[in-house]
């Protein structure tokens, strides 16, 4: 958990300073798609606030966007179609589009689809593979046995 | 309550989600009304320095990469410019050579009337015993043609390959030409022979004929392949002995053959 927080903090600073790609959204959505943990909601809330703070936008809005996307992703993850890895491409496209649309609405700016949506969509597959590899190989989880 | 339980089954942690959304709305409201100015200031104090550090790092790294790219570009540009300079120097040398040839041709046309003599310009490409020129049988060069420069006789074609010919110089030991000299005191006739490829000797000069140092020696033209009156050399020394029938004179060429940029073949 500490690792993912550190990575997200680094990604948040990176995307708000030098790299105009929504890395936090990419990581949060893909992690939520891979593992449906409650921690995703906390991360979405916390990093929504951090991104809002770093982007100098009203606090709280970004958190709500991330939370709604996490819920949508978790709902999608329950469907049989989620077994196909290619689902992450339209998922990231929709997530990025929604995020960009909300930010454009808040900032009273026009919606820039290509620069905001295309990079996360392209990065979806490699990022999915990396996150899945990390979560399955390097993250230790407690196994809770249900005894009836 | 039933609705909440149903939603929880549909969406896991639905209550937590509602709580976090509510919290987000509260934060949004507080921020909108300006209640979060102080914590935001404190946050900016921390985050701005980190963001600035990252930005500066990118600038530093970017400038280093730019230096590498610029150095590579400069190296390529330098190479291209050097090639361009090489091409220009080559072109300049070619133009100078053409100019020298044109001037020589003009000078030659003054010395030997081109209407009388059909001249073929050629460029010397080497000299050892023979003078090599860049014209050969492909250009119509034939053995026996005389080679001149202005009023001076250089030699005679002794062999011609496709693109090259050898000229037997007047200083060659095998070269023999009928010649005469003119001075204020009178004329002298003799035979000019080459000696060791360095100088010439005018032999068979009668004792009563007048010849002295500094006199110019000209071709007689009796051989048939070269015109009369071409300069062969200048007398540097007269060798005279009482008990011999003929006297001799040492000659030296007017110019160094190695310095010539162009010569002319007299086509027959």
What are the key terms here?
heterodimer; A: 148 residues; mainly alpha; 6 helices; B: 268 residues; alpha+beta; Thrombin, subunit H; 7-stranded antiparallel beta sheet; 6-stranded antiparallel beta barrel; 13 strands; 38% helix
Could you characterize the architecture of this molecule?
The complex is a heterodimer of chains A (148) and B (268). With 148 residues, chain A is mostly helical. Chain A has one domain. Chain A has helices at 2-17, 23-34, 39-55, 61-77, 88-106, 113-137. In chain A, helix 2 packs antiparallel against helix 3 (39-55) and helix 2 (23-34) packs parallel to helix 4. In chain B, the strands form two sheets. Chain B has a seven-stranded antiparallel β-sheet with strand order 1-13-4-5-6-3-2, with helices on one face. A six-stranded antiparallel β-barrel of chain B has the order 7-8-9-12-11-10. Chain B has helices spanning 2-10, 14-32, 37-111; strands at 118-122, 124-127, 130-133, 146-149, 152-160, 165-169, 176-182, 187-195, 199-206, 216-219, 231-239, 246-252, 263-267. Helix content of chain B is 38%, strand content 30%. Chain B is α+β, with helices and mostly antiparallel strands and 268 residues long. Chain B has a domain at 118-267: Thrombin, subunit H (Beta Barrel). Classes of the chains: A mainly alpha (148), B alpha+beta (268).
In which range does the helix fraction of chain A lie?
Answer: over 70%
Question: In what range is the share of β-strand residues of chain A?
Answer: under 5%
Task: Walk across the major sheet of chain B and give the strand order.
Answer: 1-13-4-5-6-3-2
**Order of SSEs of chain B, N→C?**
HHHEEEEEEEEEEEEE
């Amino acid at each position: 958990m500490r690792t993912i927080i550190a990575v997200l903090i680094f990604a948040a600073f990176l995307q708000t300073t030098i790299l105009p790609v929504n890395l936090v959204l990419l990581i949060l959505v893909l992690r939520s798609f891979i593992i449906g943990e409650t921690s995703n909601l906390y991360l979405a809330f916390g990093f929504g606030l951090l991104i809002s703070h770093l982007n100098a936008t009203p606090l709280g809005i970004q958190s709500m966007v991330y939370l709604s996307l996490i819920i949508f992703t978790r709902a999608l993850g329950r469907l049989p179609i989620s077994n196909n890895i290619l689902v992450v491409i339209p998922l990231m496209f929709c997530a990025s589009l929604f995020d960009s649309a909300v930010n454009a609405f808040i900032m009273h700016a026009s919606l820039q689809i290509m620069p905001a949506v295309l990079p996360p969509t392209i990065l979806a597959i490699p990022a999915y593979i990396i996150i899945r590899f990390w979560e399955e190989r390097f993250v230790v989880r407690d196994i809770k046995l249900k005894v009836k | 309550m039933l609705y909440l339980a149903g939603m929880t089954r549909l969406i896991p942690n639905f209550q937590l989600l509602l709580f976090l959304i509510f919290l987000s709305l509260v934060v949004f409201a507080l921020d909108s009304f300006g209640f979060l100015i102080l914590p935001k200031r404190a946050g900016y104090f921390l985050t701005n320095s980190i963001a600035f550090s990252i930005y500066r790092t990118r600038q530093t790294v970017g400038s280093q990469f730019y230096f590498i790219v610029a150095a590579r570009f400069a190296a390529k540009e330098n190479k291209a410019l050097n090639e361009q300079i090489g091409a220009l120097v080559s072109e300049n040398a070619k133009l100078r050579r053409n100019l020298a040839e044109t001037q020589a041709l003009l000078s030659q046309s003054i010395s030997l009337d081109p209407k009388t003599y059909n001249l073929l310009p050629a460029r010397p490409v080497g000299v050892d015993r023979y003078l090599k020129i860049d014209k050969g049988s492909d250009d119509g060069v034939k053995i026996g043609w005389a080679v001149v420069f202005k009023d001076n006789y250089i030699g005679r074609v002794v062999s011609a390959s496709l693109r090259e010919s050898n000229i037997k110089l007047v200083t060659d030991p095998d070269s023999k030409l009928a010649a005469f000299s003119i001075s204020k005191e009178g004329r002298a006739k003799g035979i000019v022979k080459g000696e060791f490829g360095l100088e010439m000797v005018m032999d068979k000069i009668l004792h009563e004929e007048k010849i002295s140092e500094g006199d110019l020696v000209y071709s007689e033209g009796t051989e048939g392949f070269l015109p009369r009156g071409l300069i062969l050399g200048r007398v540097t020394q007269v060798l005279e002995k009482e008990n011999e029938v003929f006297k001799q004179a040492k000659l030296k060429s007017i110019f160094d053959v190695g310095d010539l940029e162009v010569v002319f073949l007299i086509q027959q």
